[in-house]
Amino acid sequence: MEYLVEALASSTGVGVDTIRFYQGRGLLDPPIRRGRVAYYGEPHVERLRRIRDLQGQGFSLDQIQKVLASEQGEERTLLQALVDARVGNRTWTLPELAAESGVPEVLLRAAIQTGLLEPLDTDGEPRFSEADVEIARVGMDLLKAGFPLHLLLQQATAHNRNIRETCDAAIGLFDDHIRKGGETAGDLHAITDQFQQLLPMVTRLVAMHFQRTLVTRALQRLDGSEERDALEAALEALDQARLEVEVAWR
């Protein structure tokens, strides 16, 4: 079936100007021209629907271009694995995030300012991932537990700064010893597999280390005090030394 650009726009829900913009970006193949008339086919329909689907998952246009290029070669790229880990199955607008998490928008905006929540730029629209939904819910639970908002936000800002430095260093290690310098260097599939295996392990390692450090530091404060019940509870937590971290790999 062939379409004029207006019919293509109507069929896919993508505006005429957006279709032409995608063509200019190289996201959409040019139409077939017969004289002065441009005709689009089913491959154009499928490509536009694929672009919209990827945008709904939180991909930027630059990322979409790379993903589409990789799909033509029937490859699963490291970029896709990274975005899968960052986004998950779907994304939410700010009002949707507020409704989903039960956290007022004003508090979500404060969390964004601290870096605790980080929106994705989806074709100019900020959207939020599954991880953001869970972070917002946990943050709200901490507030309900009695922690002052301004102190939580200060802690979140400091945490965001420190964790970024740690993550940048970890990415450097991955680049130097896996992506560029390891046995898998140059093998895109092997590198992606390595990333998929390492991410859950690193996530659990960091979580376990944080829990152990938190409990150990709490013990140091409680040791020698009269708060024996709290001390025994902390010791029990330390003995168990467990923190279940679920990583749903998609």
Describe this structure in words.
The chain is mostly helical and 250 residues long. The chain is built from 11 helices and 4 strands; from the N terminus they run H-H-E-E-H-H-H-H-H-E-E-H-H-H-H. The protein has helices at 5-12, 16-25, 42-56, 61-72, 78-87, 94-101, 105-114, 130-144, 149-179, 188-222, 228-240; strands spanning 32-34, 37-39, 120-122, 125-127. The strands form 2 sheets. The chain has a two-stranded antiparallel ribbon. Helix 6 packs across helix 8 (130-144). The radius of gyration is 24 Å and the shape is elongated. The two termini are 34 Å apart. Residues 246-250 have low confidence and may be disordered.
Strand and helix layout:
Blueprint (H helix, E strand, L loop, with lengths): L4 H8 L3 H10 L6 E3 L2 E3 L2 H15 L4 H12 L5 H10 L6 H8 L3 H10 L5 E3 L2 E3 L2 H15 L4 H31 L8 H35 L5 H13 L10
Antiparallel strand pairs: 1-2, 3-4
**Class computed from helices, strands and strand pairing:** mainly alpha
Which range best describes the helical content: under 10%, 10-25%, 25-40%, 40-55%, 55-70% or over 70%? 55-70%
Number of strands: 4
Q: Which sheet architecture does the biggest sheet show?
A: 2 strands, antiparallel
| Overall pLDDT metric | 82
**Helical element count?**
11
CA gyration radius, whole angstroms: 24 Å
Give the overall form.
elongated
Alpha carbon gap, first and last residue: 34 Å
Low-confidence stretches: 246-250
Residues in β-strands, percent: under 5%
Strand order of the largest sheet: 1-2
Order of helices and strands: HHEEHHHHHEEHHHH
